[in-house]
Write a structure and sequence with these properties.
The complex is a heterodimer. By secondary structure, chain A is mainly beta. Chain A has one helix and 26 strands. Chain B is built from two helices and seven strands; from the N terminus they run E-E-E-H-H-E-E-E-E. Chain B is globular. Classes of the chains: A mainly beta, B alpha/beta. At the A-B interface, strand 5, strand 6, strand 8, strand 9 and strand 12 of A face helix 2, strand 4, strand 5, strand 6 and strand 7 of B.
Chain lengths: 289, 167
Amino acid sequence: MNRCSAILLGLAVAVAPLMAQTSAVQIPKTVSAGSSFSIGTTGSGDATLYIVGPGGAFERKVQLGNQVEFGPSDITTAGHYSVFVVSSSSTESAQFDVVASSAPASISFLAKPSRLPVSLHNGISGVAYVFDIYRNLILQPTPVTFQLSSAEHTPQSRTETTRDGVAWIKLDSPASAGSTQFDATAGDVIAKRVIEDVPGEACNLKMSAHGSGQRIVLQTEPVRDCSGNAVPDGTVVTFTETYNGEETTADVPLKRGIATTDMPLHAGAVISVAAGVATGNEVRWGAGQ
Amino acid sequence: MTPILKKTFLFVFGLSLFAVPAFAQVNVRVESSSVGPRDLEAQTGSSVVRDYLEAWQGMSRAMQGNQPSLLDADFVGVAKEKLANAILQQRQIGVQTLYKDESHDIKLVFYSPEGLSIQLVDDVAYEVTITDSQKLAATQHVRARYVAVLSPTESRWKVRILQAEAQ
């Protein structure tokens, strides 16, 4: 074998894997969705070329020996396709794949939950599926940047690379209550969601008491969560008075951040306060008060 | 890895094995050891695999009968729209296709944190036969890797994305 022949043989070996071919059908092994390509046939005479797959079905009348051209708009759905070239005397077949184009065009972004307490570790999750312009899942690794931002705090941002078309993240909810924007960005495409961060459970609950005739008036300080956010009005605060082995309770919703009520005045009574999982201080009402 | 069992769906979840009744002569092997980030209960895993395999049967019936409505039970979203479009194209050119799956090597790869999507990769072997009302009947054996995303619906998991990956 001379040097020229060796080079030609080398080229043939290098090119062969790029084409899915039989004796009568030559076709690229992979085609990008929405791109032009051609299928080569050999022989002579009339035939019908079929391309079928879960992504579509196509038919062309062909003259064997000619190239069959497909335009950018012909096959846009990614997937595996079977090719059959059927003539009066034979049927030849081949296979090829159509792959998503690499440019992201849309993101299916699932952000959960839409409302959650502040300062919750890994409380927010985001899942992003990245698609091309033809709504094919882009399976090649693609960076997706997740960002959590609001007016009150420094944005949290992290980039994850898709694996089999999906990227995901878990983030802590911010410490301050309010609306937070949660974005996923791939290429030039951005998907936005809004998450409402609400105050957490009451924290450091404190009440004061003073007598008023035969009643004792109870009032909390403004109720806040552990991050200092005001717990929303309507949150129920429970006052419990224990006297002579009997309990009297009063459930009071917060109004303007404060809960207030009155209970029967008994010397020696013990009064406690609680909201959700938080318990506050106790007041022991003395005989001389 | 447990060997493939003929005529039986064998599911491998970690070290535990369990079988569910076979409804077709399909070799199935499942691996879920690397799925996450959400923990996958064995019962959920078996439901996902069962519904995914049934989706292949549903797709085959729909493509063979050229009836997009047969996709309703197993597919939603983009997968359903694209398959329905393929069926309409088959109708237009007057052909049907029969997809006969022979084996599935399924790997559950992603279960979303909130439990609203699960993704699998399936090295599947199947035969595709194209027919028309005339004489045409040609069959091709295919080995392909499919990526599928399933979402829970009222009563079952449905396939939202079904897409072959170039090999």
